[in-house]
TrEMBL record:
Entry GO CC: membrane
Primary site of residence: membrane
Keywords assigned: Glycoprotein, Membrane, Transmembrane, Transmembrane helix
Coiled coil: none
A GO MF term: scavenger receptor activity
Protein name listed in UniProt: Uncharacterized protein
Amino acid sequence: QKKWYVFTPELSCSGCDPEADSVTTVNIAYAIMTEVAKGYSRIVRVGIDALLKYEKEHLFMTRTVREVLWGYDDPLFAEFSKLKDMFNLKFLPEISPLITMEYNETYDGISTVNTGTKNMDRTLDWIAWKGQSSMGLWNSSYANMINGSDGTQFPPGSGPGDTLYFFSTNLCRSIYLKFDSAKKMKGIPVNRYTTPASLFKNYTEVSSNRDFCLGRCYPDGILAGSQDCTPSTVTSPIVISTPHF
């Protein structure tokens, strides 16, 4: 399915401007480069360290909201690629200068979903994504399941005792929501569901979460409720977590 995003100022906070408002967050380029350096000789590590200092890169960075959401050309990656080509360092990985979280006017693969004609509760439930009925990425058939809807619709009449499931193509895994509270939206009674703490809890507390650890499971501590979900084809660690504010 094709996705696109539109910023609607009148529905956002008063005075918010994605071009001017900034966010301080983890410097993805810095994290990737330090991880890449681990796998090479001392001379390569020294070279990457010199590049980080030359570009004045640090673990945290400040970027505009627009840059964080829609991407920017990172000068560190650009310089890395330039030096790689200049000195013909073919053994180093190819890294695009563009860092982006979301893509406008793109699609995330062919989605096959239930029409709900025989059972309304199954409307928009996944049948397959990219022609596959399971992921084949994680460590068990349970973890690889493609469950529920795409998150835009859930079974009508869902109550406090129900668990809602949806599959996130961005995370390449299924997520579940638990009842949080009863609310009213423009006078209409609604139920609020949220991701429970158990979703990303350490495998020492929720044993089934070990199935989502690729390579290693991080110990619980610095970032409680996080999982290492780094595919073998990716050069830097990827950790999934709920927001920490």
